[in-house]
Amino acid sequence: MAETDDYDAGGMFNDPEGFYDPEPEPTFAEHPMLSGQTVRVRLVGSHPLYGDLLWNAGRTSAFYIEERAQELIAGKDVLEIGAAAGVPSIVSAIKGARTTVMTDYPDPDLVDNMRYNATSSASMIPAGSKLHVDGYKWGASVEPLQACLPAGETRFDVLIMADVVYSYREHPNLIKTMQMTLKKSPEAVALVIFTPYEPWLLPRTETFFPLAENSGFKVTKMFEKLMDNVLFENDPGDEKLRRTVFGYEIRWTEEELK
């Protein structure tokens, strides 16, 4: 009887060539800034966390930031949560944020892609503005993020949260992250901007805001913006809602700042 170590299956357990579809190649997207500059980013070819898309809320966040850059961003410390391709982070760095930290779920493909986009945009970022990339799971320790801040700083002036409130189960972790990272000052703000791609879940998505109010924050609705087109053409549900981007600013309450 032959020893098992000498047994040769002759490749019978190998998948035949072409058995699996090839992984989709990465694609690229461009974001035209109001300044006339263009941010070009690479998107992950395919990913369960949707890193292969440039979301309407991300684009809208980037425009919102650029329009208010002088008072909102310049010289400030900025953290983006759930950045995907990272356009709002890149725009923040270009517009003179002192520190920008671009984060998404600590998946190697997502993080590597964010690093690629940060590196590709480096020539557009002025001296004195630093752009960092890191993987971050919502609600986890923020010490790695704090390590990116200038000496003596432990919190951020601006949080960018584009299309992150869709998962109501993660609302407590998002609130926890806000509590750990938003600077305790009247000017510090979290920008929560999203589109209800599944309109029937909008009431559940909106439970994020009373939870924030019960956790020491003041919520202010800033805008509703109707986009020209839906992001997912064949999805069900109210088309107008699927084209609408909602924008909120969240700040600490006066009681929390005492």
Automatic annotation (TrEMBL):
GO biological process: methylation
Localization annotation: Cytoplasm
Source organism superkingdom: Eukaryota
GO CC annotation terms, alphabetical: cytoplasm
Entries under PROSITE patterns matching the protein: SAM_MT_NNT1 (PS51560)
SUPFAM superfamilies per UniProt: S-adenosyl-L-methionine-dependent methyltransferases
List of residues binding S-adenosyl-L-methionine: 55, 82-84, 104, 138, 162
UniProtKB keywords: Cytoplasm, Methyltransferase, S-adenosyl-L-methionine, Transferase
Enzyme Commission numbers on file: 2.1.1.-
Chloroplast recorded as keyword: no
Database matches in InterPro entries: EFM7, Methyltransf_16, SAM-dependent_MTases_sf
Main EC class the enzyme belongs to: transferase
UniProt key word S-adenosyl-L-methionine: yes
Location of the region described as Disordered in the Swiss-Prot/TrEMBL record: 1-29
GO molecular function terms listed in the Swiss-Prot or TrEMBL record: N-terminal protein N-methyltransferase activity; protein-lysine N-methyltransferase activity
HAMAP family cross-referenced by the UniProt entry: Methyltr_EFM7
Function (record text): S-adenosyl-L-methionine-dependent protein methyltransferase that trimethylates the N-terminal glycine 'Gly-2' of elongation factor 1-alpha, before also catalyzing the mono- and dimethylation of 'Lys-3'.
Family per record: Belongs to the class I-like SAM-binding methyltransferase superfamily. EFM7 family.
Protein name, as recorded: Protein N-terminal and lysine N-methyltransferase EFM7
Species of provenance: Aspergillus steynii IBT 23096
